Amino acid sequence: MISKHQLIQKRIFDLTASLLLLPILIVPIIVLVIASTLDTIQFGVFTQVRIGQHAKPFKIFKIRTLKSEEHLLGHLNMSATRLGRFLRHYKLDELPQIFNVIIGEMSFVGPRPDIVGFADELRGEDCIVLKVKPGITGPATLKYRNEEDILSKQPNPENYNRTIIWKDKVEINKKYVQNWSFYLDLSFLIKSLIT
Question: Which is nearest to 87 in space by CA: 115, 64, 59?
Fold first, then answer.
């Protein structure tokens, strides 16, 4: 099980690495925000409430990839733009999460932060997943890298997500917390960069 000392070690790495990367990433982030603003005709930074460490809600930062389209009946439909699909495919929409890491809401590696109604409803032994900060990448994120494609092929995507994918993610993330090491985090970072 990850200890308090290891959590501090993990935070020191996250803060150091994110501050070193920020000067390199800031220009690409600004360019993508401007491109997204022009593409979606909305401000290019998207925020959404996610569940973090100890089930504390926080706002995650992403490059906006969806464009609102108002239909004749007045319903609002969200669809990814061509640029948005490109950004999502290469995970470039997640670059602004470096600010979540700097603030201390996220880690480079950890369980992917979910919307309200998932991690905040964990009970019993499953709650150990909440001992660590959510991550930009991690073992479950890598396994379900093509989650959108998997769900698009299901007759009932929401039910499949809750009953199959979410349960598997919890088990994967429990093992991650139980067996954490600095080298384990490095291995997930390397896998994320090369896959």
Answer: 64
Structure tokens at 49: 């409430």
Residue 10 burial class via C-beta count within 10 angstroms: exposed 0-12, middle 13-18, buried 19 and up: buried
Long-range pairs of 180-189 with CB within 8 A, sequence gap ≥ 24: 180/2, 180/6, 180/10, 180/132, 182/6, 182/9, 182/10, 182/13, 184/109, 185/10, 185/13, 185/108, 185/109, 188/109, 188/137, 188/138, 188/139, 188/142, 189/108, 189/109, 189/137
Q: Distance between CA 133 and CA 106 in Å, rounded? A: 5
Question: What residue ranges do the domains of the chain occupy?
Answer: 4-194
Regarding beta strands 57-63 and 135-137, do their DSSP bridges make them parallel or antiparallel, or are they unpaired? unpaired
Count, in order, helices (H) and strands (E) of the chain: 8, 6
Rounded to whole angstroms, the Cα distance separating 33 from 27 reads 10
pLDDT at 71 > cutoff 60: no
- pTM comes to 0.91
What the block records as the tokens of 62 is 């992403």
Structure confidence by residue, pLDDT tens digits, 152-161: 899 999 999 9
